[in-house]
Amino acid sequence: MVFTDPITIGLTIILCLCLRSLLYGWNRNAYKNFPPGPKPLPLIGNLHIMDKKEPYKTLMELSKQYGPVFSIQMGTQPLVVLCGYDAIKEALVDHAEEFSWRGKLPIFDDVSKGHGVVFANGENWKVMRRFTLSTLRDFGMGKKSLEDQINEECNSLIEKFESYKGQPFENTMIMNAAVANIIVSILLDHRYDYEDPVLLRLMKTVHENIKHLGHPMVMLYNTYPSLIRWLPGIHTTIRKNVNEFHHFIRETFAKHKEKLNVNDQRNLIDVYLVKQQQESIPGQYFNNENLVHLVGDLFGAGMETTSTTLRWGFLIMMKYPEIQKNVQNEIEKVIGSAHPHMEHRKKMPYTDAVINEIQRFGNIVPAVSPREVTQDVTLKGYFLPKGTSVLPVLASALQDKKYFEKPDEFYPQHFLDSEGNFVKKEALIPFSAGRRNCAGENLAKTELFLFFTRLLQKFTFQLPPGVSVADLTPAVGLTRGPKPYLMCVLPRT
Question: Whole-angstrom Cα distance, residue 380 to residue 67?
Fold first, then answer.
């Protein structure tokens, strides 16, 4: 018999979910040393207690009650949460192999299907990550040529800032464009004008998705994908944007394929296409889908997080003009009017401390996507069976009172000793840690230092007339950025 009545179908689904919830409850009790946590309700688990806008805050509060390793239930699915740097390090670094698998996250899995580098697993992930790291190095990551390229982009950004003649303007898309051009140059050997409609459309789709992915409906989608997948909603907009972005990438690498010169590989796509021709088993790893998702991963991650960190930096400099002046004084002392380079950084402890504190305070990625335990493991005395989903809360490391004296304040002295020397803090892990840390970490660090110092070398950032206090309230999204704000940039004399 086939049931077509909607009420019957609905009741059947609810019955199945109830049975699944009961089965999970029995399974959880079977492990005596499974991490403790708040009691879940049938069907919804612990969803009712989560902060819908900033769920990581709920998790950090729960850790005060249950400790650095505890469990919650998202719908009918268990999730082990790691809070505090020590617990995160023990998992991601000390047990790197056991925590190297990317956990399931339906909103991304539906799109990536295991391709690319961010949401891939197993041998495919290892091959794509090795390729990404080696190619980024080949095209300048950590080399002076890339520094020169960033300084060239700074020239265009400075011209754009100067065009406002000291009047207030909003900087989101401008900063996205400047940072995007660096990763685009590596991917495509190309640079876009800031008003180019192609670049504007690409940035809009990424920026829109970043915003949508922080919506509470996405949490519901990830909890009940089989129920919500076929309904209209934000998840359909996210999928539409991703498909549009991937269509652009497919068109782009098709053009590259037509003009490919094995002896003149000018960008990452060229190198990938050559690898594709050389692969012993055609399409095993270097297939078209992996290329589409790899380019998408690098463009999205390479633009959004660095741009957002810089925008936090400008806002914070306007809020604390005395800190801004201290940075500018150090720039004058060490660099003068020359272009900054990474070799200057070790001679600029205060500026280095400020940039590190911007990353810490900005807290761009409060929690990375879940990991899946690849084999049974004991963590902080608790037993985690193979297949357990684990969520490291990076914000809890960045705000760990054991490592940061004033975790809720912007305090550059976190990274300075009593004599003003720079002090590295191991708990600063904005790029995550272990085997799945951000592949573009070194590129991002180079961009942050060069963009930040060059712009503070040329300008003083000020709040618009009539605005007395900078608003440090974050916007809602997948990444934790500042709300859109107006700023004035005044040339330094």
Answer: 10
Q: d(Cα 357, Cα 360) in Å, to the nearest integer? A: 5
* pLDDT for residue 193: 96
Contacts of 243 (CB under 8 A, 6+ apart): none
d(CA 373, CA 71): 14
- The confidence score (pLDDT) of residue 30 equals 55
Rounded-to-integer distance, Cα 105 and Cα 219, Å: 10
pLDDT of residue 142: 57
Strands (E) located in 150-262: 169-170
CA 211 from chain centre, in angstroms, equals: 13
For residue 143, what pLDDT is reported? 61
Residues forming a β-bridge with 416:
422
- Residue 9 has what pLDDT? 40
Pairwise CA distance, residues 15 & 22, whole Å: 11
Considering only CA atoms, which of 202, 211, 252, 255 is closest in space to residue 234? Answer: 211
**How many residues comprise the chain?**
493
Which positions ≥6 away from 347 have C-beta within 8 Å?
Answer: 334
Parallel, antiparallel, or unpaired: how do β-strands 77-82 and 389-392 relate? parallel
Q: Which residues of the chain have pLDDT under 50?
A: 1-15, 18-19, 21-29
Backbone angles phi, psi at 460, to 5 degrees: -110, 130
